[in-house]
Amino acid sequence: MHTEDTKSICFEDFKKHPLFILYMDNDIAFLNNLTQITGNSKKAIRLDCCMIIFNEGNESVHCKINGEEYSIKKDCCAILPTGTTIASYRTRNNNAVKFTVVSKRFLSEIICMNKETLNVIHYLYDNPVHSIAQKASRKLYLYKELLMTLINEEPHAYSKQTRRFHFAGLFCEMLAQLSHLVPEDRRIENRNNRSTTIVHDFIEAVNADDGSHRSVSYFADILCYSAKHLSYSVKQVTGKTPSQIINAHAVSRIKYNLKNTNMSMKRMADYFNFPNPSFFGKFFKTHTGISPMQFRELEEKEQGGIL
């Protein structure tokens, strides 16, 4: 096993790697390589922006997204919302893989945070990889091809606006198609847009956290709402309490570290801000039915004893 660090990467960080940038303005970047940005393949990054990975080659792209192994095959893409963690990125043909990175500011300009958008964002955290080769995805393929043509042509007075408008069209088409894939039992109700905005900010804050903060008051404070108001809005929109969402995220981060690091239980308890290993073990078992050590042993057994 190895110790895996996680660092946050925002849109501005991609400017540090100009050799791999095909095009970049203040809010959108097109890149042709990710390995130099992620660095060591064992190192994880947490996105403070949105990323789309397109695979045009015959070789699959393999990576961990939010702690789960994914294979991005030919003519497939991975759509990674803000707060997504990506690690162990590897492929044999970097030239066939293209990346689009979008700032949170631009996303807020081109999409309305309504119930459909929130449904899709929640869905993408667990289902990031999708095909763009199917007949139903023909428009996505055409948008992508047009964008690549636009970024490779000689610039003109309106190049920046043209690229931005076409990317906005591509992204909105993606949301529209993905909205049909969200299962009924994963959809949320929407009674007013203000509550939806609050819940979006809450979900984003939770996903950006490393799992060490598990109190509703902590997230209420950083979002500048009262805990009561936050709880009411989250329950109204999602049907869940904030604690349920916070704890589910914390458990997923703990599982990720159990699978991908060699931290001892004591160090793990310290890392996730538990008072002692006993409280840590009790929390994990309450939410999973097994102890942290049992979970790690099962993962090692499934992977042949190698993490």
Description:
By secondary structure, the chain is of the alpha+beta class. It is 47% helix and 18% strand. The chain has 12 helices and 11 strands. The chain has helices at 35-38, 104-110, 115-126, 138-152, 159-179, 193-208, 216-223, 227-238, 242-260, 265-271, 277-288, 292-302, and strands at 6-10, 21-24, 28-31, 44-48, 50-55, 61-65, 68-72, 76-80, 85-90, 97-102, 129-131. The strands form 2 sheets. It has a 6-stranded antiparallel beta sheet. Strands 1-4-9-6-7 form a 5-stranded mixed beta sheet, with no helix packed on it. A hairpin with a 3-residue loop joins strand 2 (21-24) and strand 3. Helix 6 packs across helix 8 (227-238) and helix 7 (216-223) crosses helix 8. It is globular. It starts with 5 loop residues before the first strand and ends in a 5-residue tail after the last helix. The relative contact order is 0.11. The model has no long low-confidence stretch (mean pLDDT 82).
Offer a few descriptive terms.
six-stranded antiparallel sheet; 307 residues; single chain; five-stranded mixed sheet; alpha+beta; 11 strands
Can you summarize this structure?
The chain has 307 residues and is of the alpha+beta class. Helix content is 47%, strand content 18%.
Which strands sit side by side, in order, in the main sheet? 2-3-10-5-8-11
Proportion in β-strands:
15-25%
Structural class computed from helices and strand pairing? alpha+beta
Give a quick account of the main beta sheet: strands, pairing sense, barrel closure. 6 strands, antiparallel
